[in-house]
Amino acid sequence: MMPLGRSFFARPSLQVAPDLLGCMLVHYTSEGVLSGIIVETESYGGINDPASHAFKGKRTARNEVMWGPAGHAYIYLIYGIHLCFNVVTGQDGDPQGVFIRAVEPRLGMKIMARERNISLDRNNIRKLANGPSKLCTAFCITKDMYGTDVTSAPLFFTAGEDVDIVTSDRIGIDYAGNGANWPWRFLVKDSPYISRKA
DNA sequence: ATCACGATAACG
DNA sequence: GTTATCGTGATC
After folding, report:
1. Residue A144, CB, less than 7 Å from strand C?
2. Spatial distance between the Cα atoms of A115 and A126, rounded to a whole number of angstroms
3. Which residue from A39, A36, A19, A43 is spatially nearest to A190, judged by alpha carbons?
4. Which residue of A18, A35, A64, A185 is most buried, as measured by CB atoms within 10 A?
């Protein structure tokens, strides 16, 4: 399966975020192949989005990759422990991104369970990657992959299945004022693999 | 001081 | 099943 290319990501975040639902996230690691269907994303919309790290044109070492070309990984540490994984979208110079919040595991669940330090049984497959930091841990996405090109191996996306989509407001951005109410979170309808209910 | 989170505890 | 609490360290 061909990786999704630059042109897929070089579109507005509000188009890419829902389009990624149903697509595969794939990571070739030394442990084995990890993959899963993306079931939850959020759009972060550049300098006019009060929830965005680039709001009002803020440009720092941390968010620098957002300002570059689409299709690169924006990864950062939050709350001292947790990693977040985004894909840069939009045109070069327009700091947009899509935040990947949850994945339905397909390949490499045994490895994911080991990475997550939980036992693997039928009841907890949905807990392997049902959150932004959990999926980083499960998929062996580390901070040193900051800036990585995600249009080719080892970490990339492929086209997936058609899915029904629902929206909600975004999670964990109470600081964003009115922006906290925008319906920029996208979920696969009725998926049990999402981080929390819409 | 703040934060795109999640494990745990203390409840049903 | 639910809700509340708080650790953790890079960032600015």
Report:
1. no
2. 15
3. A39
4. A185
The model's pLDDT over A170-189, given as tens digits with 9 standing for 90+, comes to 999 999 999 999 999 999 99
> Which domains can be identified in chain A, with CATH numbers?
6-188 (3.10.300.10)
Write down which residues 35-64 in A have CB closer than 7 A to strand C.
60-63
Per-residue pLDDT tens over the stretch A51-90: 999 999 999 999 999 999 999 999 999 999 999 999 999 9
Tokens of A129: 């990657």
Task: Judge if the beta carbon of A198 is closer than 7 A to nucleic acid strand C.
Answer: no
**Nucleotide with the nearest C1' to A60 CA:** C12
